[in-house]
Structure formats: structure tokens, C-alpha cells
Amino acid sequence: MANFVTKKDGAKEAFNPEKIKRVVGIAAADAGLANDKAASIVEQVLATVMQTTADKEEITAADLKKIILDKLDIISPSVSQAWRNYEKTK
Fold first, then answer.
1. CA-closest candidate to residue 53, choices 67, 34, 39, 42
2. Is the pLDDT of residue 90 over 80?
3. HEC letters along the chain
4. Using only C-alpha atoms, what is the Rg of the chain?
5. By C-alpha distance, which of 80, 81, 87 is closest to 41?
6. Burial code of 38-64, b = ≥16 C-beta within 10 A, e = fewer?
7. Cα–Cα distance measured from residue 35 to residue 57, given in angstroms and rounded to the nearest whole number
8. How far apart are the C-alpha atoms of 35 and 32, rounded to whole Å?
9. What is the separation of C-alpha 84 from the centre of its chain, rounded to a whole number of angstroms?
10. pLDDT tens digits for 9-66?
11. CA 60 to chain centre
């Protein structure tokens, strides 16, 4: 698992799986999914992130976001769309 995430501005922060759980959970709620379905999606996404970053010391925030959205596109397009809709309003 990656130990650090490098932000757009070059700042590094510790990799925090709870952050991924939170944001994917929020997107799932925004997509109107039931809690049990949302929890399943969160766990699938987190497992993919952990597997993909297993041999990396650090990952960029952009690469991390791509991994998450690519997985969401496959397992729950509605959650992926909710995430993208939120990104547009930021």
C-alpha cells in the first residue's frame, strides 16, 4: 500500500484509507444507494486501491482518483457519476 499521496501542489500527506471510504460513501449516498450496497461498493473500491498501490511508496492524488473512478465505472456507474457531478461543483 502506498504510504504517501502527492497532491496537485506537490504537498505530500499520509495515505489514509478512511478518506477513500468516506468520499466513496458520500458519492454512493448521493447516488441514492442503500447503506448495505454502498458499504459493499466502498469495500470493493478500497480493495482495488490497496491491491493497485501495494508495491508503491507514493501515488499522486490524480492517479488515486483515476483508480477509484475506473473501478466505480465498472461496479457502479451511478456512484461514479455522482462523484463526477460533485467534482463539477467544487
1. 67
2. no
3. CCCEEECCCCCEEECCHHHHHHHHHHHHHHCCCCHHHHHHHHHHHHHHHHHHCCCCCEEEHHHHHHHHHHHHHHHCHHHHHHHHHHHHHC
4. 13
5. 80
6. beebbebbbebbeebbeeeeebeeebb
7. 33
8. 9
9. 12
10. 999 999 999 999 999 999 999 999 999 999 999 999 999 999 999 999 999 999 999 9
11. 13
Residue 20's domain comprises 4-89
Count other C-beta atoms under 10 Å from residue 7's C-beta. Answer: 11
CA-CA-CA-CA dihedral for 15, 72, 66, 8, to nearest 10: -60
> How far is 16 from 30, CA to CA, in rounded Å?
22
Q: Number of folded domains in the chain?
A: 1
